[in-house]
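Entry type: protein chain
Record version: 2
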Amino acid sequence: MVSGEPAPYGDAVTNEGPLTGVRVIELAGIGPGPFAAMMLADLGADVVRVDRTTPAGLGIPGDLLTRNRRSLAVDLKSAAGREVVLALVAGADALLEGFRPGVTERLGLGPDDCLAVNPRLVYGRMTGWGQDGPLAHTAGHDIDYLALTGALHGVGRAGERPVPPMNLLGDFGGGGMMLALGVVAALYAIRAGAPGQVVDAAIVDGVSVLATQIHALRRSGRWQDPRGVNLLDGGAPFYDTYECADGRYLAVGALEPQFYDELVRLTGFPLDGDEAPDRIDPANWPALRTAWARLFRTRTRDEWAELLAGSDACVAPVLDWAEAPEHPHLAARGVFVDHDGVTQPAPAPRFSATPTSVRRRPPHPGEHTDEVLTEAGFDPDRIAALRAEGTVA
């Protein structure tokens, strides 16, 4: 445990990474909660996922978000199931849950219940709206949280409707990543002598923080509220995507003058010796975009990528999901790894002295029930009884 005291159960033999020795209990959910648990597990924490005893549509078999941890299946609605989880909590450093506010309290597994058996526990809570406020008890999804924070307003083409950026910005960036950071920060505080505490990670909070720079630019008059008319939202012709001769795309990010000059030099822009409009004046951006679009349609994506490779023109081919792992740079860095025959993103970030890795494939629900309960001090007869009564599976 973080305190340095011996833990009653663990996986220290296979753990590696900067969080080795940290024990985390994850009450199974979907999306940002499992992502936060994956981040902690990737960093070396021993994360035990508490799945349900019956399937509940909590994801897909082999979901990579559940890698690097063990699973036991527990009926959380039973008194005996509650006792099992509290026994695990007593030997843990942190617990993660992603239910609606009040659910774990009704199960007898709320912060007060868990901190009573482990006063140094970090209790991490993942929701969209937060633990309080008028919307706290209502349902929502990534797109709703982005809409309310203003982030969704800024994503899309000028004059067109907002476009949801998948669920990367809310669920994973503003949600799961913030929860993981919050839990690590609280663990550090406990190591310094602070008591156990609750981390309230809400996606609306996290997305708002991610948009801090945009708010700063607005205040300084350097960002306009209409979408698709600014430097970083596709408004600038030198920060946009362009279709090539083969129907595939290039991403152009030549924001600074020196990078733009390099792009102009290498591509021979503009075509036919036409004079290119000044890029500084936004009034010239539509004409510039038309000229760049015309130029990029004269070659295929890969021809452009080869021409501009290794330069400071800030251009990259837009790769699809299958192409990305094969790109020479990503391959050289090991950005993707193969584990158990499955290609997947490697743990990040990297550490020089405590390297991380994919150690375990995603577990089947309940795959490690006996193992985890034995390490927590349950004898074989008690485990058999719990199985017989349906408390665990």
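Comment: The CA atoms of residues 286 and 384 lie 72 Å apart.
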